[in-house]
Amino acid sequence: MSTIIEAPRTPRERSSKGRVNWEKWGWLYMRLSGVLLLILIFGHLFVNLVLGEGIKEIDFAFVAGKYATPFWQWWDVVMLWLAMIHGSNGMRTIVNDYASHRTVRRVLLIGIAAAAIILIVLGTLVVFTFDPCNTFIPADQALTFCPVN
């Protein structure tokens, strides 16, 4: 009995034409989002820790000042979305590799997707609805730019 092994560069026959190769797009996303995350994270760390007085300067007022500008809101939201989807896709890959039972795999994948969606929605809401002058802060603890009620 002989087995013929085709050359490594031989194009594969497509068994299902017109279908999207999700694994290929997931693989590409991991590479591209990883590069973007490196830029976003190191930019975030540089602005927060290197510029100014470093970690001593980071407090509630610092965050309030950053989130007062749309640039930093979008920077953090893009970083959140990329990181959550990147991490969820990595966890999906691990589950697909190690969970052999179909039902267990499905439950784990649904749990990962649900956690990612909930955290993305909550994180996005926090960034875009952040109000440093909410009415729950006592007047003696309010920031200097907040009107006292």
Protein model, in words:
The chain starts with 21 loop residues before the first helix and ends in a 20-residue tail after the last helix. The radius of gyration is 23 Å and the shape is elongated. The model has no long low-confidence stretch (mean pLDDT 84). Helix content is 62%, strand content 0%. It has one domain (27-133): 3 helical TM bundles of succinate and fumarate reductases, CATH 1.20.1300.10. The longest helix is centred in the N-terminal third of the chain and has 29 residues, at 22-50. Helix 1 packs across helix 3 (70-98) and helix 3 (70-98) runs antiparallel to helix 4. With 149 residues, the chain is mostly helical. The chain has helices at 22-50, 60-66, 70-98, 102-129. It is found in: Membrane. InterPro entries: SQR/QFR_C/D, SuccDH_FuR_B_TM-su. One of its GO terms (molecular function) is metal ion binding. Keywords: Heme, Iron, Membrane, Metal-binding, Transmembrane, Transmembrane helix.
